[in-house]
UniProtKB/TrEMBL annotation:
Domain Major facilitator superfamily (MFS) profile: from-to ranges: 1-385
Record localization: Cell membrane
Membrane topology label: Multi-pass membrane protein
UniProt keyword annotations, A-Z: Cell membrane, Membrane, Transmembrane, Transmembrane helix, Transport
Entry protein name: MFS transporter
Entry's transmembrane regions: 20-40, 46-64, 71-90, 96-120, 132-151, 157-179, 200-222, 242-262, 298-320, 332-351, 357-377
Organism name: Reyranella humidisoli
Pfam families xrefs: MFS_1
Length: 397
């Protein structure tokens, strides 16, 4: 499908809305805390349910996407995200919002195992397609980070959820009207890729899953914690909510562009050759960020977010390279469940950990996590070797 088709446009909008609504709470909890008379550090654990369901629900979402079909699952996604966002806006205490966020996380779990495989199943340049989709998703984070604080301050925190919720409901109607239904569920189609030996598949899946965990930890910490990081260590320039919102929008917007470049590179070069340096460069940047403040921190944050966002397309690209479309939703669902099941603890603990250890210690830990990713990726078999194994004559029985 072309990038300008209604299907492609709505799937990319879906990625933006998925990340937008998922992080609104993280960029509004300062305002909510003021309204409810609590500290923002008390609210972060109540985001755990949303992120846990975002991961755990992906197993169910992926299975349903392959067996029911991806069209109907995307309709459920848009409608569910819209309704759950409006329910969150009705909450009056932290226990209610925790439950409503968990419901939202269950619907949010649909997009990645369903929407991305649907988008790339007929793509001529899957790397660039994934890059454009990643840009859309991270622009959703940029919009949330840039607008949520302003909307919450100006119109009340409820409006920060109502606006994207209404957009999702409009998208649900548009998806039904403009996107043609698929003729057959993916799981019922014939195989189109060569089967790899179980040992090779196990190795690839293990590396894919491990890097999904480490990547999700880094992604969730930075996307949910950058606001408080700047507010804490760049107080002289980020005291005004409008200034903080502008800084966050600039960071996430510029970082999102990295995915277009990475997407182009993925279509031309082996994944491992591009992925390894991107992950390795995160290590010194996190260490630098742990030691600087003010404008230096702002510039460093742009640099490490370029690499964090630049690393995002690789797991989906690995799935396209190694996994047949019949089961991509299920494989994506499993790796998301494991990755976000672990990393969801990170966001829940942001408040308590910052209170006890401080941002410098946590940024140093992220440097260690990035280095672990580098070590795991160095063991990924080359695509040339994988192709040779897949095409080698089978021994006669």
């Amino acid at each position: 499908m072309s990038h300008g088709s209604p299907t492609s446009i709505l799937l990319n909008i879906g990625h933006a809305m998925d990340h937008w609504i998922l992080v609104v709470f993280a960029y509004s909890w300062g305002v909510i805390a003021g309204v409810w008379g609590v500290e923002w550090t008390e609210l972060t654990p109540f985001n755990y349910g949303a992120l846990f369901m975002f991961g755990a629900g992906s197993i169910v979402s992926g299975r349903l996407g392959d067996h029911w079909g991806r069209w109907i699952m995307m309709v459920i996604f848009f409608a569910g995200m819209g309704v759950s966002a409006l329910i969150i806006a009705l909450c009056t205490n932290k226990w209610q919002i925790g439950a409503a966020l968990t419901l939202m996380g269950a619907f949010a779990s649909i997009y990645h195992p369903v929407g991305i495989p649907m988008l790339v199943q007929k793509a001529k340049n899957p790397g660039f397609t994934i890059g454009v989709n990643g840009l859309a998703g991270n622009m959703g984070i940029a919009i949330a980070a840039g607008l949520s604080v302003y909307i919450a301050q100006r119109f009340g925190w409820q409006a920060a959820f109502i606006i994207p919720g209404v957009i999702c409901l409009i998208c649900a109607v548009a998806f039904v009207a403009l996107v043609p239904r698929e003729e057959m569920a993916p799981a019922k189609r014939k195989a189109k890729m060569l089967d790899l030996p179980p040992s090779v598949m196990a190795r690839v899946f293990a590396i894919m899953t491990f890097t999904a965990v480490t990547g999700s930890i880094i992604f969730n910490f930075t996307t949910n914690g950058n606001g408080e990081l700047l507010a804490n260590r760049a107080k002289n320039i980020a005291q005004d909510p409008a200034m903080l919102a502008t800084m966050l929008f600039v960071i996430f917007s510029l970082a999102s562009l990295a995915q277009l470049v990475v997407g182009k590179l993925i279509d031309r070069y082996p994944l491992k050759n591009i992925y390894l340096p991107i992950v390795l460069l995160q290590v010194p940047l996190f260490l630098i960020a742990s030691q600087v403040e003010g404008w230096a921190l702002f510039v460093t944050a742009i640099a490490f977010m370029l690499l964090v966002f630049g690393a995002i397309p690789f797991t989906d690209a690995m799935i396209v390279r190694y996994i047949d479309d019949r089961m991509r939703s299920r494989v994506t669902g499993v790796r998301l469940a494991i990755g976000f099941g672990v990393s969801s603890f990170v966001v829940a603990l942001i408040g308590p950990l910052v209170k006890d250890a401080g941002f410098p210690v946590l940024l140093s830990v992220l440097a260690g996590v990035a280095f672990c990713s580098f070590l795991a990726l160095s063991m990924l078999p080359s695509e040339k070797d994988v192709h040779a194994i897949a095409t080698a004559p089978k021994p006669a029985e």
